[in-house]
Amino acid sequence: MKTGRERALLATVVFLLLFAQVLLYPGLPQLVDALGQPAGLGAGTPLLAAEFVGVILFVGGWGALSDATGRRIPYIIAGALAGSLGYLVLVALIDGAPPYELVLLTRGLQGAATGGAFSLAITMLLDLPGGRGRNTGAVGIAIGLGTMLGAPVGGRLYEVDVRLPLIATAVLFVLAGAVAWTVTDRAPTRSRPGLRAPIRRVRRQPGLLVPYAFACVDRTTAGFFALVGTFFFQSRFGLDPGATGLLLAAFFTPFALLQYPFGRLSDRVGRTLPIAVGSLAFGLAIVGVAFAPTVTLVAVVLVAVGAGGALCAPATLALVGDLAGPEDRATAVAGYNIVGSLGFLLGVVVGGGLAERFGYLTAFYVIGGAEILLALALLPALFALDSPDGSVAPGSD
Q: What torsion, rounded to 10 degrees, do the Cα atoms 49, 53, 56, 59 define?
């Protein structure tokens, strides 16, 4: 019962962090305009990318520090509170014609703070007993629900005032820190991994490169939708932020609701099949979005995108937990989040660049096609990790 309570509380922390973060996305064009920049991909790309640069640069340090000190909770709280402060600074910059470099620096520091809180909350869920697929399914449904609700709620808040999503995010981050404070710190015995620990961890267990690669590919698509999808839906169909948020929810709803059962499925059938099938379906459905001629058909295809993502996401994270030892699990999860954030950054930068130079349809074809091709290329390495009887990969505890 205690494990179930802790699973619920930690999933709540993950939910709050993602729900708050996604509030920003549906009104990116409006936020860019309020910050005194042209409301297009040229300014929207760095605004979204800066946050993930911060995650990439600092999340490994958060994981190494947690493993070295044998603590998780204090760093989750610190990261959440620092992220809240960053969003309040961003509120103060609106309508003040700030240098855009200052805005981007603020976003980078937000990512550095909240990326650590997010990564360590996920690590604590992987620390729990009770089946790693179940635990990563809890992570997945928390992420999915946060993004599913964050998109439409953020869109509505933007329609009232462009500052409201930022203020709400700051409040929700404080709430996430408060919930984390109620959880028992279950970190294993301290170790001394150091800041280069994610690299050393991969050298000791090169199999981690497989789930890392899938995470990078899948998150590239997520980053593409967060930026290019928002601008595409508004420009092609004339949607306002509220309607954009509701359309994005067509993806996030199945992504949220299916992750827990699919995570448990990976405990029974192994990680390979869910990752392989989910990634391929993910890529095919993304290309399908570009062909859909109406908002209704786009929503139908987005449901398929969400289902594919829900199939592969918890199994990929569970595979990281399978391959990592308890003494440096935070470091391994930090590596997972680094490559995932790198993928998100690539989706934003590459997707935004393709859309701006060659058009939205070309960007959808390239990103969706890359997801399919890279998933196929990684399949042999993924099958090589599977145990002979098809059960969960070695290393689960």
A: -110
| Beta-carbon contacts of residue 270 (< 8 Å; ≥ 6 apart) | 386, 387, 390, 391, 392, 393
Distance of CA 87 to the CA centre of its chain: 18
pLDDT in tens, 190-234: 555 544 555 565 666 677 888 888 888 878 877 787 778 878 888
pLDDT at 197: 54
- φ/ψ of 396, rounded to 5, equals -75, 150
Residue 373 CA from chain centroid, whole number: 22
Decide: residue 196, CB within 10 A, 0-12 exposed, 13-18 middle, 19+ buried: exposed
Core vs surface per residue 92-121: b (16+ CB within 10 A) or e: ebbeeebebeebbebbbbbbbbbbbbbbbb
CA torsion sign for 271, 382, 257, 304 is negative
- Residue 143's nearest CA partner among 258, 12, 304, 15 is 15
**pLDDT per residue as tens digits for the range 173-196:** 999 999 999 988 776 655 555 445
Q: Which two tokens stand for residue 146?
A: 């946060």
Cα separation, 349 vs 155, whole angstroms? 23
75-89, 314-328, 380-394 — most confident range: 75-89
List the one residue out of 280, 267, 281, 251 whose CA is nearest residue 314: 267
> Residue 78 has what pLDDT?
95
Q: Dig out the tokens for 380 from the structure.
A: 């042999």
Sequence-distant (6+) residues with CB within 8 A of 76 are 13, 116, 117, 120, 121, 124, 176, 177, 180
Q: What pLDDT digit, counting tens, does each position of 21-66 carry?
A: 889 888 888 888 888 887 667 667 788 888 888 888 888 788 878 8
Residue-by-residue DSSP string for 254-276: HHHHTHHHHHHHHHHH-SHHHHH
| Dist. CA 133–CA 264, nearest whole Å | 5
CB atoms within 10 A of CB 3: 12
Task: Determine the Cα–Cα distance for residues 219 and 346; give it in Å rounded to an integer.
Answer: 9
